[in-house]
Structure to design on (1109 residues):
């Protein structure tokens, strides 16, 4: 791994860890009924898109481990107990980077902004599906409930991560996106 | 053969988008560095100096021309480790160079990469830490170091490579004056023991320590020579640089002294030169001594009857350190800080009382860590006091009731490095963010954005549709500033706005602040540089260790040089020099606020020392009131 | 009323300094014990194993010189949430509906099986929390960084970036509190321009856009940090080739090998589950299955 990959992996892992850190949990955008959209998948996706699947997997791994430790040391809600199980907190996160990267690579040549959005959606959904899937397999949640959560929480969360991925990577690569070709001023 | 041999190199960065042409950063630069030299490379922003630095160890490869280090060509990839072992590099941001969990691990990074045997690494690390003065801190977490210490750690990391040369790319720009001094002293020491030093900087006073200076402008070498030769050429301004104060002063007095002052690089030298000139010119006349002329306090006359714009009464604040210490803290005895007892908290403000009157310009000075940033953030109610009270326009600010967003719009706050708050895709939208949130729309919004952008020097039409993140660092900073100005705040609070800026940018900013001041904006800025305070501030407030120790009109504050020194704050050199000349009876007593004023006083002393030194009181009052270095560098 | 004070309680590794044999274990051994211990706790499905684990963890905690208050306080904080989860679980998961019938009301029925599941779940979560607390109490931050490398170094020859991993972990741990400060500053900057980040009643896209001024600058700044850091690393002769030496070596001692062996033994025990009989007795307390 070259210096750049190491640096990006380390730094974006730090962002992911910070976003999930108690007590403030900055990476949580308030959603309905006390639930939140979490954007900790975004650094993982961005790392994967910019530097490849290995970096993405490492960031995902460190994100997962940090959520494991944080759930055990400073739980903030009832669901934190589930995340003390590494099969729920770590294993699913290893795949976020991989899927995001695959999607990005397939589409980047055709249309960069679209590739970024889809990579963001894909990465976030990977997180949602795998985590909820493990919860279901463990019997912690009823499958019906799981599907509801995936729809009500997972889908909007995917959009949030996609928007963020697009905004950040486009800014970093200095690429324009969107229909407007300039500021919205009269 | 020179140790570092740079021949006619050119380099271009790709433009931000396919449409813009590649910007040539270096257009044929030649430089030969001999072993043991101490060279300074100076230039304004975008002169190419950083680009040049990155070529010296092969981090960048020239498009044409060549760079040879000790006979190795930087274009040969397999020689790069050998090159980088010989030419080590230190960068501008201290925290972006740390890779170790402990201080010694970080210093060991280089040797580890060179595959130095484990036992030898230990001795190299110990020696390097000793050379930079970080002995005993080996097991500490790098978090615990100050910015200056972090830079010294970076140098230790470089020294552990046993390099022949160290290149420093603006390594002092993010340090406070104390940190700068320490670093420069270290560099001189290292050079004395044989290390070649290449110091890239935009500050001429730092460059003055070198044996040879290279001036870069627009990608070319504009001048080269010893410090005295370079300083003598009056062209420095056109390169966006300024001469050390003493030289500037002596240049302005040249027509009265006919060059008899020589080229003093510092104030003590200038002082003795002045004394001898004055002795020769006016051996018998003595300046009318004793009472200094009472000058009316410069700046807008404040109406004492009206309530102050902002008033802090007994405000205290303490915070929990964000950086977890690596070893468990010994329990502290409880401290009472203005009524807030917390044995884990660090008090940052202790019972502060301060009044800010509308239209004033206040300079907040103080050593690093004295609480300046925290204080500034109370002024716009970003922080609400843990004890004490804040009043805006006479009304106490009560968190549950007060309209905080509206207060924050009236009192704008510009943080350090405003470019770090940018998020919008297009510049126009970024600047429009604040006013849009305030409810502005349509044509009014556009006009506001136009005004703000033009004010900071970014032409509205050509910049509004540019990609925010494709701009240069300096341009991005202006966008950040415009974003706050667009709120048309009544007062502007700035946290070290000139930190790290090159002289040209600094002048631009001070000119902007002066214009805003003339339009009636209240300005509060924190700074390490008292010369700035002298130029635009009506009042100086010194914050030391969380307490206000001084709150005086600028001139009176300057008169307290001794006290300020006790707090590691330095008045501009010309203040001390004029004071000492006044004591010698050569110049009328009185404190100059700006270099220009000092020049006027000295000129008067040179012409007619027996008159009350200085122009007629009314002339002086108008000159002092402006407080601007007219015709400045 | 401190809206913007940064209280970064990144109490990630609640390290309790000490010199017990557990503190002095090789970081790799610690990592092995941690991993296998976690695996064991997940695999074990009877109360016998969980109770035994609980006892073992508490004993080791005491032996390591870690005051019991430390892990127990973590547990205490988690307890209310644990109870909520457990209640939700037993009420909604159908497979637990066996055993003695304790009646019910409305749509909820309470059966023995549900109680049994509740007890088991609680025990498991408690074990996990206490175990992780113990692990972080005896591991220093730099050992943490090395642990990853220690575990994966045998696989380095197959391309696993083992040495790099400890570097990455160190960098991550270094920057995390830095981002805490920078995020606070960004948040304050935007607040100073009038942002208040309240998202009441806003649709999805509006909400996300409201938060962009917070997250975009942070991530872009992170990438800048990474670029500068990479440059500094290269300037210090970092190359991709393997074979970097190191300042600190962590010698492996026989005690560490024993510890590793014990870790494997624990997992084997969990799988083989010798206390089957005990479990069945306990289960029977909650009523007949079937």
């Amino acid at each position: 791994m070259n210096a750049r990959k190491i640096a990006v992996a380390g730094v974006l892992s730090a962002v992911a860890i910070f976003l999930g850190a108690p007590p403030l949990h900055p990476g949580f955008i308030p959603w309905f009924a006390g639930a939140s959209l979490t954007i900790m998948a975004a650094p993982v996706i961005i790392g994967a898109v910019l530097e490849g699947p290995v970096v993405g997997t490492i960031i995902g791994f460190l994100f997962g481990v940090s959520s494991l430790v944080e759930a055990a040391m400073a739980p903030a809600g009832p669901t934190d107990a589930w995340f003390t199980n590494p099969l729920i907190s770590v294993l699913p996160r290893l795949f976020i980077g991989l899927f995001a990267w695959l999607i990005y690579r397939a589409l980047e040549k055709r249309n960069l902004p679209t590739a970024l959005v889809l990579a963001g959606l894909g990465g976030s959904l990977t997180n949602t599906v795998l985590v909820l899937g493990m919860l279901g397999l463990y019997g912690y949640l009823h499958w019906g409930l799981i599907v509801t959560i995936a729809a009500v929480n997972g889908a909007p969360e995917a959009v949030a991560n996609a928007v963020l991925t697009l905004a950040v990577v486009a800014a970093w690569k200095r690429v324009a996106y969107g229909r407007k070709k300039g500021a919205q001023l009269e | 053969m020179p140790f570092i041999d740079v021949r006619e190199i050119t380099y271009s960065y790709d433009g931000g988008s396919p449409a813009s042409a590649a910007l040539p950063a270096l257009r044929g630069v030649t430089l030969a560095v001999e072993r043991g030299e101490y060279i300074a490379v100076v230039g304004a922003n975008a002169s190419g100096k950083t680009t040049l630095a990155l070529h010296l160890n092969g981090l960048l490869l020239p498009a044409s021309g060549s760079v040879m280090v000790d006979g190795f060509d930087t274009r040969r990839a397999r020689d790069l480790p050998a090159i980088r072992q010989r030419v080590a590099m230190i960068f501008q941001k201290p925290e972006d160079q740390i890779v170790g969990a402990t201080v010694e691990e970080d210093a060991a990074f280089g040797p580890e990469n060179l595959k130095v045997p484990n036992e030898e690494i230990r001795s190299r690390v110990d020696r390097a830490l000793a050379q930079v003065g970080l002995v005993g801190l080996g097991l500490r977490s790098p978090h615990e170091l100050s910015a200056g210490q972090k830079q010294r750690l970076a140098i230790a990391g470089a020294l552990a490579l046993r390099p022949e040369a160290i290149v420093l790319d603006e390594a002092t720009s993010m340090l406070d004056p104390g940190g700068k001094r320490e670093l420069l002293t270290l560099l001189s020491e290292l050079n004395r023991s044989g290390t070649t030093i290449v110091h890239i900087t935009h500050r001429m006073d730092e460059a003055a320590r070198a044996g040879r200076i290279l001036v870069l402008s627009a990608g070319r070498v504009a001048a080269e020579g010893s410090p005295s030769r370079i300083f003598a050429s009056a062209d420095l301004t056109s390169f966006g640089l300024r001469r050390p104060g003493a030289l500037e002063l002596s240049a302005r007095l040249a027509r009265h002294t006919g060059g008899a002052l020589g080229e003093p690089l510092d104030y003590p030298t200038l002082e003795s030169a002045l004394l001898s000139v004055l002795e020769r010119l006016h051996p018998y006349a003595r300046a009318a001594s004793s009472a200094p002329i009472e000058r009316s306090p410069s700046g807008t006359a404040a109406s004492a009857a009206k309530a102050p714009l902002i008033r802090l009464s007994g405000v205290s604040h303490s915070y929990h350190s964000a950086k977890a210490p690596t070893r468990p803290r010994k329990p502290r005895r409880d401290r009472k800080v203005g009524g807030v007892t917390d044995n884990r908290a660090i008090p940052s403000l202790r019972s502060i009382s301060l009044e800010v009157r509308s239209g004033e310009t206040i300079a907040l000075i103080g050593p690093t860590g004295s609480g300046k940033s925290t204080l500034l953030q109370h002024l716009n109610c970003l922080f609400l006091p843990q004890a004490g009270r804040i009043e805006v326009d006479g009304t106490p600010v009560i968190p549950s009731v007060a309209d905080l967003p509206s207060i924050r719009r009236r009192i704008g706050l510009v943080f350090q490095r405003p470019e770090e708050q940018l998020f919008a895709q297009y510049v126009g939208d970024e600047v429009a963010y604040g006013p849009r949130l305030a409810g502005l729309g349509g044509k009014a919004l556009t006009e506001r954005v136009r005004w703000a952008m033009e004010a900071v020097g970014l032409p509205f039409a050509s910049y509004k549709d540019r990609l925010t993140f494709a701009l240069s660092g300096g341009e991005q900073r202006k966008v950040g500033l415009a974003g706050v100005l667009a709120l048309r705040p009544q007062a502007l609070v700035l946290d070290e706005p000139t930190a790290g800026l090159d002289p040209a940018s600094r002048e631009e900013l001070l000119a902007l602040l002066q214009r805003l001041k003339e339009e009636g904006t209240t300005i509060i800025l924190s700074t390490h540089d008292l010369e700035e305070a002298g130029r635009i501030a009506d009042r100086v407030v010194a914050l030391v260790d969380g307490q206000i120790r001084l709150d005086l009109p600028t001139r009176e504050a300057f008169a307290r040089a001794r006290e300020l020194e006790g707090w590691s704050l330095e008045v501009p050199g010309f203040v001390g020099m004029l004071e000492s000349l006044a004591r010698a009876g050569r110049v009328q007593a009185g404190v100059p606020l700006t270099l220009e004023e000092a020049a006027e006083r000295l000129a008067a002393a040179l012409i007619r020392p027996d008159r009350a030194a200085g122009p007629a009181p009314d002339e002086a009052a108008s000159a002092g009131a402006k407080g601007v270095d007219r015709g400045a560098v | 009323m401190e809206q913007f004070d940064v209280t970064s309680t990144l109490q990630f590794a609640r390290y309790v300094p000490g010199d017990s044999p557990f503190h002095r274990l090789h970081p790799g051994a610690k990592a092995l014990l941690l991993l296998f211990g976690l695996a064991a706790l997940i695999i074990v499905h009877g109360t016998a194993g969980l109770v035994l684990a609980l006892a073992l963890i508490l004993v080791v905690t005491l032996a390591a010189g870690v005051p019991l208050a430390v892990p127990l306080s973590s547990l205490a904080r988690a307890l209310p949430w644990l109870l909520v989860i457990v209640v939700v679980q037993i009420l909604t998961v159908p497979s637990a509906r066996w055993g003695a019938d304790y009646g019910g009301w409305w749509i909820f029925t309470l059966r023995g099986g549900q109680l049994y599941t509740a007890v088991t779940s609680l025990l498991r979560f408690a074990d996990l929390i206490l175990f992780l607390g113990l692990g972080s109490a005896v591991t220093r931050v730099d050992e943490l960084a090395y642990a990853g490398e220690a575990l994966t170094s045998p696989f380095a020859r197959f391309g696993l970036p083992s040495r790099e991993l400890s570097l990455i972990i160190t960098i991550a741990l270094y920057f995390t509190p830095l981002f805490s400060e920078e995020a606070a500053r960004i948040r304050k900057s935007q607040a100073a321009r009038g942002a208040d980040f309240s998202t009441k009643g806003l649709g999805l896209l509006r909400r996300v856009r409201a938060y962009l001024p917070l997250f975009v600058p942070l991530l872009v700044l992170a990438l800048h940090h990474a670029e500068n850091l990479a440059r500094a690393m290269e300037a210090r002769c970092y190359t991709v080739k393997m074979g970097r030496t190191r300042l600190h070596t962590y010698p492996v001692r026989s005690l560490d090998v024993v510890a590793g062996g014990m870790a494997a033994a624990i997992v084997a025990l969990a799988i083989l589950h010798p206390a089957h009989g005990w479990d069945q007795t306990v289960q029977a307390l909650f009523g007949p299955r079937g």
Q: What stands out?
A: The first helix of chain B runs from residue 49 to 56. Residues 16-20, 290-303, 321-343, 612-633 of chain B have pLDDT under 50 and may be disordered. Chain B has 24 helices and 22 strands.
